[in-house]
Design brief:
This protein is an alpha+beta fold. The chain contains 6 helices and 12 strands.
Length: 233
């Protein structure tokens, strides 16, 4: 099972064009049998993605999109800020704090981290955080698994774009390197969420009771992810 982002969508989609504020957008409509409402997102490529609940009319979905002009424009601005190259003065999430990138004669400073500087600042910082994630996350996952009586076949760290983590039927755990940007308690929640799929391979009430038993603060972690997750990806 996978801990997907709340705005991730299935691949198959109905492609349309819509005009908002005088501008044409590509729109992908995807029906989702478990969706309870229309959900509109702006992808990094500027494409609008609309989740349509099962049984809902496409015309109602298009009407919903037509009312979101101001939100789409604000979201595009936010996307441009988020995807801008990192450089001196850029604020980044790291260990749950907003840290400012600083350049020195010796390299790059991000919070308590001193990073070797290459030609590309963004690439240098990301490579450093990926290295931290590969060193820390598998060890943390194995420790939490042992603490709760589970055996994991392997733990891998990946550059995932639509999920924080996943758990296979073979007890293999995959974790997003960006967990090092979160507060420790939120990162632990993601790991525990995936470990609980070893008990319940779904998101049923039984599953969430398992999560509650090992991570009573999971709701606060979910709120953090919903509020700040899109700033990280």
């Amino acid at each position: 099972m996978q801990l997907r982002l709340p705005w991730s969508l299935p691949r198959a989609a109905d492609h349309r064009q819509v005009t908002l504020g005088g501008r044409a957008y590509e729109l992908r409509l995807v029906r989702h049998r478990r969706a309870r409402r229309f959900v509109l997102r702006v992808g990094g490529d500027g494409v609008l993605k609309l989740t349509v609940p099962r049984g809902a009319a496409i015309s109602d979905g298009l009407a919903f999109v037509g009312r979101q002009t101001e939100w789409v424009e604000r979201e595009q601005v936010r996307q441009r800020v988020r995807t801008a190259p990192w450089g001196p003065g850029t604020e980044l999430w790291f260990r749950g704090r907003r840290e400012v990138l600083t350049l020195t004669s010796d390299g790059i400073v991000l919070g308590p981290e001193s990073i070797q500087r290459g030609d590309d600042i963004s690439a240098s910082v990301k490579a450093h955080m990926v290295a931290l994630a590969k060193r820390e996350l598998p060890a943390r996952c194995l420790a939490l698994a042992a603490a709760h009586g589970h055996t994991v076949s392997r733990v891998v760290v990946r550059n995932q774009r639509s999920r924080w983590g996943s758990c296979s039927t073979r007890a293999s755990i995959a974790l997003n390197w960006r967990l090092v940007q979160m507060p420790a308690q939120v990162s632990d929640y993601v790991v525990l969420h995936e470990l609980m799929h070893l008990r319940q391979g779904n998101h049923s009430r039984k599953f969430w009771r398992e999560v509650e038993s090992v991570c009573p603060e999971w709701r606060e972690a979910e709120r953090w992810l919903r509020k700040h997750g899109r700033e990280i990806l």
